[in-house]
Amino acid sequence: MRQSVTLPLSNNSFESIATLAGAADAAGFDTAFIYEVLRNPFTALALAARATDRIRLATGIAAAPTRTPFGMANSAADIDEISGGRAVLGLGSASGFTAACHGTTFDKPVTRMREYVTAVRAGWDYQYTKEPATVPGEFYGCEFPASPWLRENPRRQIPIYLTGIGPKMVQLGGEIADGVLGAFKTVEYMNDVVIPNVRIGAERGGRNLEDVDIASMVITCVHPDRKEAIRRARIQVGVYTCFPPCDPVIKHHGLEREKQAVLDAVAAKGFDALQDVTDDKLVDLFSIAGTPDECRAKAKEYADSLPHIIFHTPYAPPMLPEESAENVLNLCDTFGS
């Protein structure tokens, strides 16, 4: 099982993220994932590239609807150039966030994402070969003209991971992507939904299941004080429980009542209530939390179902920045090679 880590860009400074990336690199993690919420993940990855030597540097995720495919391709190529060929492009539709903050839509998400990935890869090919090209498409058709100002990329192609929870997007990832990236997945959901649908997509694309890197973020809170680790896990699990994209997993486990209790508490008391009201069932299912020994033991439960585990540091309010940074360092100590 490959082991990676997320870096908490939401509540830590760019300088702190670079320092934490260096720690993750030294600990031997496969990849450092930096997700997009408000700060730009590509900016953070550029700084992380300067603070690291070998670890892969990934967006996990970058929101496709907020950038053109060619803009996304060039942002990823920047990181690949700065890092010497260590970039990974994690893509997602981020539809709820996008609709609320950017005023854009992503209807027909599977069709759009298929075209988007095709256009991103065509952009890299264009830069590499210097050959004009036409990319047809309903949403992302584009023309690449002859030009004297094309860049020299370290690699012709950069790995693309697609984020998916529902079967159709997971199948698309299995069909066209280098990896399928998820979050808030359980061992049962991996076995019942994710792996079978990645296999369907892989076979549709003429590939084997083993050709696709199946990766998922698992909320992981490590602390010498077990009670404190569980408190932090309650916060992050509670926040994700509120997100509609996580509903398929909640429904799969029959935890709609526990989800509603979290929603009611947040509506009445705000997010501070999460550290008290998030049910133990949710915390146990959707996180690895406890002392270092407890976390190592629970992580092993994923070994047969998740080829690539991404230890996901809590960051949601009322989590403090220093608490999130401390957790990354605890992950390095606990799971580092």
From TrEMBL:
InterPro entries: F420-G6PD/mer, Luciferase-like_dom, Luciferase-like_sf. Keywords: Oxidoreductase. SUPFAM superfamilies: Bacterial luciferase-like. It comes from the Bacteria. Residues 9-306 form the Luciferase-like domain. PANTHER family: 5,10-METHYLENETETRAHYDROMETHANOPTERIN REDUCTASE, PTHR43244. This is LLM class flavin-dependent oxidoreductase. It comes from Sporichthya brevicatena.
